[in-house]
Amino acid sequence: MTGDSTRMTIWTGYFDSRTSRRSGRRVPRDASIPRPSLDQIAMAARSAGITKMRRDQDASHPLRSSSKEGRLVVSTDDALASTNSANKEDVLKVIGQRLKVLASESEDTAAQRTSRLSGRAGARQAKQRKAPSRRPSGQRKKKFGRR
Q1: 132 falls within a domain
Q2: Which of 39, 52, 80, 113 is buried most deeply by CB count within 10 Å?
């Protein structure tokens, strides 16, 4: 199998914490998240400084051909230079650490959003945000199709 040395292929399965190293995870468990999406990995790569990349949504890994997990094709020179790495494994570790940080930040914002609307005060706020009814005040809903 001949490969293109100017491009580096990054599969989403490399960062899935639910899979084992033997099944295809290539980063440590502390640098992986469960069920990573291609968009999350692209955002993590962009935050690591990698700019030259292309997404393939419908691509499936040769060993996992039943699932269309997607891949990220990045420039090897850009990836190695922007992450100050010597090889692909180091690039994957840097992207995995950024992915973990981005996932924890999104969990924190989701927790703040739900905690803001909890309890009696949250219910009161939610009721105040509801749209007003379209019927004028004092008019009741008609029953059985009468107008």
Answers
A1: no
A2: 80
